[in-house]
Design goal:
- The chain is an alpha+beta fold and about 425 residues long.
- It has two domains: about 20-175 and about 230-320, Bira Bifunctional Protein, Domain 2 (BirA Bifunctional Protein, domain 2); about 330-425, Rossmann fold, CATH 3.40.50.
- Helices cover about 40% and strands about 20% of the residues.
- It is built from 15 helices and 16 strands.
- It has an eight-stranded mixed β-sheet with strand order 1-5-6-11-10-9-7-8. Strands 13-12-14-15-16 form a five-stranded mixed β-sheet, with helices on both faces.
- The two termini are about 50 Å apart.
- Bound molecules: adenosine monophosphate (AMP).
- Adenosine monophosphate binds near residues 116, 122, 283 and 285.
Length: about 425
């Protein structure tokens, strides 16, 4: 017997039954982000490896350990995108968008790839919905973006998600903080894990991200980045907090939050859910300002702010809420006799053209087995089509939830089912 080939570890199949949850989340995002003026951008799945090295940073876990990097047949080093901000920035620069408009708002959704240790809420192919706003350095832009996330989570009816906020300063004030942090970490060198001993030299901020409890304890007692902010960065951070208050958005300031990427300046934020279903994967989304990244990538000097939400985690939370998003068929067409098979196929086709969801067993078979299928399909009504119905042009709609059958002319099936749909919608959820 030949070996069964299985899917790649950490990369999941999303099947009907679950996919409706995904579509619900994606649909809400499209609609809501559109209201905020964000247009969708789709970038390729793979990019020049250098893009991520130069933006996300060589010393980050993402680039250092987790990228799917390979040489193509022409010898170019490509990487499957581990995140969406750098590809969007690359596209923004390549298409010289800054010459076309002063402010640009983009959103994206799609798969990202990181070779991570698998656990609940953490996969190797996972999905993000993200947004980027280019061209404004103002705190109002940060606040608008957080408002969009808050409204999005509200539309998803997800509660108990806390907004964590911090500022990492800029090139004027961060060096002093860096120096202090390195000095502090040097003094605690022996308590740090091997990775952090290295990070301390190459990128000390990364130590604050380390999952190791001892490193976390060291980091917690270290210097506070907010005490090092220069006047403009302090004013920006104060302004942001004031604006969030104006918008009625609750937040907590968390000076230890640095996020795992190198490109952030000033504002960083994370949305953290408290639901136990997520375990340690409780961050549903995060982002920040990256005013220097465009220039660093050889592009124009354009400030930007962005965020990304983990779709897998949002879906996990929605699943926990027990809500369902599947739409059962309006009708199941069953065939009473062999000779009515074609007429049933044609009836199903016509009703679908008229906008109805219709199920139909193409295998035919006994009426009993078809009725079993009708039950399983969750269809609201079943119509049995046989010679009698064909000759008279009259049939019956049998409500699958019980109750009296409704006599109907075959020409009026769509009209009657639509009226039934409307009546249910008006009656509200059952
Ligand atoms: P990041 O780009 O690391 O800030 O990630 C943004 C969001 O994407 C996180 O808050 C998570 O919700 C989600 N995410 C990141 N990595 C993974 C992963 N390996 N599996 C599932 N979701 C992830």
């Amino acid at each position: 017997m030949s070996r069964q080939i299985e899917g790649v570890k950490g990369m999941r199949d999303l099947l009907p039954g679950e996919i409706e949850l995904w579509q619900h989340v994606e649909g809400l995002a499209r609609e809501l982000f559109g209201r905020f003026g964000y247009g969708e951008v789709r970038t390729p799945m793979a990019e020049d490896t250098g893009l991520f090295v130069r933006s996300v940073g060589e010393e980050t876990d993402i680039v250092g350990k987790e990228m799917y990097t390979f040489d193509d047949k022409g010898g170019r080093s490509l990487s499957l995108r581990p995140e969406g901000t750098a590809p969007a920035a690359r596209a923004y620069i390549e298409h010289a968008i800054n010459n076309k408009e002063p402010i640009t708002r983009w959103f994206y959704m799609g798969p990202m790839f990181r070779y991570e240790r698998m656990k609940t809420g953490r996969y190797r192919q996972f999905y993000q919905i993200g947004a980027e706003a280019y061209g404004s350095k103002e705190a109002a832009q940060d606040a608008e973006m957080m408002d969009m996330v808050v409204q999005f989570l509200g539309a998803l009816e997800l509660k108990d998600v806390t907004l964590n906020l911090n500022s990492l300063g800029d090139e004027a004030c961060r060096p002093a903080y860096h120096a202090k942090l390195v000095e502090y970490l040097q003094a605690h060198r022996e308590e740090l894990c091997e990775d952090c001993k290295r990070r301390m030299e190459t990128n000390p901020l990364r130590v604050l991200d380390c999952k190791n409890p001892t490193c976390q304890a060291v980091a917690a007692a270290g210097p506070n980045v907010l005490e090092f902010l220069c006047e403009p960065c302090r004013a920006h951070f104060d302004d942001l907090q004031r604006k969030l208050t104006v918008l009625g958005i609750k937040y907590v300031v968390n000076p230890r939050m640095v996020r795992g990427l190198d490109y952030y300046t000033r504002t960083v934020f994370e949305f953290i859910a408290s639901h136990p279903a997520l375990g340690t994967a409780s961050t549903v989304g995060g982002g920040g300002r990256y005013d220097k990244m465009m220039k660093g990538l050889g592009g124009p000097d354009v400030p930007a702010v962005g965020f990304a939400m983990g779709l897998d985690r949002l879906v996990l939370l929605l699943k926990e809420s027990g809500r369902t998003f599947t739409s059962p068929p309006d009708l199941f067409v069953a065939v009473a006799d062999e000779g009515s098979q074609d007429a049933a196929l044609a009836l199903a086709s016509r009703l679908r053209r008229e906008g109805l969801r219709v199920d139909f067993d193409t295998r035919g078979g006994s009426l009993k087995s078809q009725m079993k299928r009708a039950d399983k399909s969750g269809a609201r009504f079943t119509l049995v089509l046989g010679e009698a119905e064909r000759t008279s042009g009259q049939a019956k709609l049998k409500p699958m939830a019980g109750g009296d059958a409704i006599p109907v002319a075959l020409d009026d099936v769509a009209k009657t089912l639509r009226a039934a749909r409307l009546a249910t919608a008006q009656a509200g959820p059952t």
